[in-house]
Amino acid sequence: MAKILIVDDSRTSRKILRGILEGAGHQIVGEAMDGEEGVAKYAELKPDIVTMDITMPKLDGIASIKKIIETDSKAKVIMVTAAGQKEKVVEAIKIGAAEYITKPYDGEKLLEAINNILK
Amino acid sequence: MFGTFFCNYLERKGTITAEQKNIILNQLKKSALKLGFLAISEKMLTIVQAAEINALQAQQDKRFGELAIEKGYLTEKQLEKLLALQGDPYFHFLQVVTEEEIMTEEEVESKFYELRKDFGFSEKEFADLRSGDVEKLINIFISTGSSNYDAYVSLAIRNLIRFIDKQIYISGITKTFEYEAKHLSYQRITGEHEMFLGFAADGEELTAIAGPYAKDEFDTTDADTYDAVCEFINCINGLFASNLSVNNVYVDMLPPGFGTGKKIESDNGFYVVTLYIRDKKVELIAAIDSNLKID
């Protein structure tokens, strides 16, 4: 079981992710609606894993990962992207994202990404 | 999709009522096309012969076709032809409306040809319509003359069918230069192409997209409804961006937007596709390199 922070500006997306993750026995320790809030909540809640949307207002996913990794080089972040954002995925992996998944959500792939990190 | 299209056409023509349409669509979902019905329609069996086989089937654990061959009513070749026709949505429609005593076979046939005339379908388009093949059906309705637009709009429709409702009805597509949306969820794409995709409705109709996509119940068009529709649009745009990247065309998606009383304008024009999802009218708005403005 992992303590997870969900960072996504879409309530629908957060709800779907929460459903999949809680259904698999993980604990959602917090939710953030944009990158700025996500960075602040990471510092406050110290989750095992963060799911991070790429396209967000205020601070986007890439900038948010950078800030999180700067403060905690061992942070485990799963990028959540729509299909067709290959360049951003590559950029995210380069700056330290551990895994990535694409929308529409595939529960199995998300849980597989979590398990890979927990190994 | 064929059933929905034909039912909506018949309802608009006043041939069937809304209640009858619901009965037909319900039965199309629940039932399968029977080989016996098909054999009678194709004049390979008489009604008496089909009834005899049905009666034998109640006593023996054998398939309809097997018994018909044993009785010498059908040849192997005829059975093969009937089995190939078993996926034909026209015959399935015919079976449902005649069994429900809503229309006769002759009435269905005559209305089907009237439809061809009304829509001005070519022979190929008419055959495509009858095939029930979703891809072919989309191609019949979505033809803008621009391969980019066709690909963008068709992808959106395919995803509506995949995630929202298999029975959507495409009423038409028009090019326009301005559009006023009472309720709108949208997303812009920037980069090598400037694109826009949105769904608009006058009342609570966006809930017909939000509900199935978020797997939740939505009664009114509120922030959650807009958000769910935006997420759906984001998926469509992501898939389209992915397709473009195969041809080394790169675009970037901006955060989605939504709101009420939005006015969309473009000097180059853009496309509006009128759709009915569970009888709720929703308009899909698509623009590519249109210098589109939204207030």
Indicate the topology:
The complex is a heterodimer of chains A (119) and B (295).
Chain A: E1 3-7, H1 11-23, E2 27-32, H2 35-45, E3 49-53, H3 61-71, E4 77-82, H4 86-95, E5 99-103, H5 107-118
Parallel strand pairs in A: 1-2, 1-3, 3-4, 4-5
Chain B: H1 2-12, H2 18-30, H3 35-41, H4 47-59, H5 64-70, H6 76-85, H7 89-99, H8 105-119, H9 123-131, H10 134-141, H11 147-164, E1 169-191, E2 195-201, H12 207-214, H13 223-246, E3 251-253, E4 257-277, E5 280-288, E6 293-294
Antiparallel strand pairs in B: 1-2, 1-3, 1-4, 2-5, 4-5, 4-6
Helix pairs in contact in B: 1-2, 3-4, 10-11, 11-13, 12-13
Low-pLDDT residue spans of chain A: none
Radius of gyration of chain B: 23 Å
Largest sheet strand order of chain A = 2-1-3-4-5
Q: How many strands, what sense, and barrel or not for the largest sheet of chain A?
A: 5 strands, parallel
Total number of helices of chain B: 13
Largest sheet of chain B: 6 strands, antiparallel
Query: Runs of chain B with pLDDT <50, length 5+?
Result: none
- The best one-word shape of chain A is globular
Helix content of chain B: 40-55%
Tell me the total number of β-strands of chain A: 5
Whole-angstrom Rg of chain A:
12 Å
**What value does the average pLDDT of chain A take?**
93
Structural class of chain B: alpha+beta
Task: Report the structural category of chain A.
Answer: alpha/beta
In N-to-C order, the SSE pattern of chain A is EHEHEHEHEH
Query: Strand content of the residues of chain B, in percent?
Result: 15-25%
Q: How would you summarize what this structure contains?
A:
The complex is a heterodimer of chains A (119) and B (295). By secondary structure, chain A is an alpha/beta fold. Chain A is built from 5 helices and 5 strands, in the order βαβαβαβαβα.
Which key phrases capture this entry?
heterodimer, A: 119 residues, alpha/beta, 5 helices, 5 strands, 48% helix, B: alpha+beta, six-stranded antiparallel beta sheet, 6 strands, 52% helix, 22% strand, elongated
